[in-house]
Design a protein that fits this description.
The structure is a homotrimer of 261-residue chains. With 261 residues, chain A is an alpha+beta fold. Helix content of chain A is 20%, strand content 30%. Chain A has helices at residues 16-27, 45-55, 98-102, 126-139, 188-193, 244-248; strands spanning 3-8, 32-37, 64-68, 79-84, 87-92, 107-111, 163-164, 169-176, 182-187, 201-205, 208-214, 225-229, 234-239, 255-260.
Amino acid sequence: VTRVVLLTDFGTADGYAAAMAGVVASAAPEAVVEHASHEIGPGDILAGAFALSRYAHLYPPGTVHLVVVDPGVGTQRRAIAATVDGRHFVGPDNGLFTCVLEGARRARIVAIHESGRGPDASPTFHGRDIFAPAAAFLARGGALEDLGPSVVDPHILEVPRPERLADSVRGEVLQVDRFGSLVTNIPASWIREMGGAVGAVHVWLDGADMGPIRRTYGDVPTGDVVALLGSRDLLEISVRDGNAAARLGADRGAAVEVRPV
Amino acid sequence: VTRVVLLTDFGTADGYAAAMAGVVASAAPEAVVEHASHEIGPGDILAGAFALSRYAHLYPPGTVHLVVVDPGVGTQRRAIAATVDGRHFVGPDNGLFTCVLEGARRARIVAIHESGRGPDASPTFHGRDIFAPAAAFLARGGALEDLGPSVVDPHILEVPRPERLADSVRGEVLQVDRFGSLVTNIPASWIREMGGAVGAVHVWLDGADMGPIRRTYGDVPTGDVVALLGSRDLLEISVRDGNAAARLGADRGAAVEVRPV
Amino acid sequence: VTRVVLLTDFGTADGYAAAMAGVVASAAPEAVVEHASHEIGPGDILAGAFALSRYAHLYPPGTVHLVVVDPGVGTQRRAIAATVDGRHFVGPDNGLFTCVLEGARRARIVAIHESGRGPDASPTFHGRDIFAPAAAFLARGGALEDLGPSVVDPHILEVPRPERLADSVRGEVLQVDRFGSLVTNIPASWIREMGGAVGAVHVWLDGADMGPIRRTYGDVPTGDVVALLGSRDLLEISVRDGNAAARLGADRGAAVEVRPV
């Protein structure tokens, strides 16, 4: 079975997501449609890129990831399809595939050509009229190159980079998850290279001491702040059984520093 | 594969939607269950009817649409099943199928008879005890007529109609979508017949000028209002990268007029 | 087809739920992944247990229920798998399976052993690294006993019990559902044994009279309170076309009494 996995910012209540699923079901009847999420914040391309990179590689090779967070729909931004390390990706060329492409060993990208779009493609719903048909084409075993000409300069988001100083690391909060955990852009590997053991370094958020790096939430009492190396191999700041973003008043962009005490 | 596609106002957190899916899985093991949405506003039949009509026809013939927004559950309202242009529909006879039936070329409708309900059918959860079994029966290839006697007078909602005046068109906002876009009841075809070209007419919302009709969101600067012919072939009023409902303080029922400047 | 049905408190927007689905898809390619819900309140084990018991038994034997509401992830709480009346269950041993186990005719439970976890299992995301692989193993037909040693003392939540007095029944609100209905812990069978017929007894919520027990919502006018025997065979208090929790200011734990007028 080939899976077509949808990720959008459409919500479900308006029927837009189901319209895409229906198009795939009609054009690729043997494919299985799965829904990763339709709850990406409206127009939040970075959140879409980030969520996608949590799961895309965990699906088997041949899976088609159909990803639409597309505030520029109908403008001159390209529609693209890509094969990255054996999985396929279809969506707008607006940076949605930034994290996937940056982690890629091997990637081929094409711009979906006009003739594939049909004369009646809506200028406001390419998810239904361009991306879903292209995803179904790939799910049926169609060749990526048949969708359009090669692209060598996909749009890449400027994701804030962490930096290493003499004896510390500086970064920032990249994302706040459902639990209110603050996911930073500081790689776990950098922390481990600092000497790594629990207690050797502390984490500061906007200048306030968040304590040492722990193993898991349960290492602190309920309600306490806990910094740890998260499941995406990035430094995270959480509150056990609570919401760190609300409790600490922090959001994307908040400054994070790790340094010896 | 036959698909059974669920649409309800149940949310997912209470397990009601999964109960329906489980009943279908047990009664029609070869069918594929898909979830269009469970986020229709509680009891909002019109929103359910509207969402359903965005995607029902895009699924392949033979698909069973299992649709439950059912504030009158347990009363005398009928339970119905229908075959409309090759797709099946199961749900309460309360107007949920209004948009689907109005766009139909060919429709057969039956009232699901009591003997099919089982003696223990809950008077408050027909989704699980009546509609899901009927949907599974159709998914297994059962004949519509075997579910019950023919219905010729399905409940049809009074959807507000637009009107054509001498040199203008009047309608209203029918629905607000997740992005805050105001979807009106004015057909794109009427606008096109007015002379259609961009700039020939302006759109007024509650008497305020929303400007000409554009092609897509990107035709105005970020934050500006944009009127366009939406993906459902209806006039829509949006704010680029913003929320028109919040920005304009408009909701269902707001008056919309289109006329030459 | 074997179904793996997910229930979590992860939401969908961060990609955690899709990560679990992707792991299952890779490890058990022939299995069908379904999503019951990812909208359980963060860390709300009781709500997860309650939702699960609404639908788990309705899926066909052989179904694997993968359930993760896991505030204690990474602590010493066990990871368990169980076979209960023909369906499989995988998740943390924190009480999530309380309702399923209490209703069981036959249950076998094992603690998932360490060697199955892989050396790189994240201490904060067992859903992806421990539970999803175990669920896929069972979906492929693996034997429960191969996952680890037998467990005879699963964690059981202290669910508040109703009590029978001389001529009345006392209980409390266990759960508030999406519609604002107050689901109590008082079994329908107890009410029926009291003489049961409509009008023979009234329901009191926090000392206020909610009236007699009706058959369905439509038995009272719109906006009125209605007590009835709900689809889960428990006493419920609702407001027709409204929200009882908001209207009555009641939440989990509110006292409920049923007694003759």
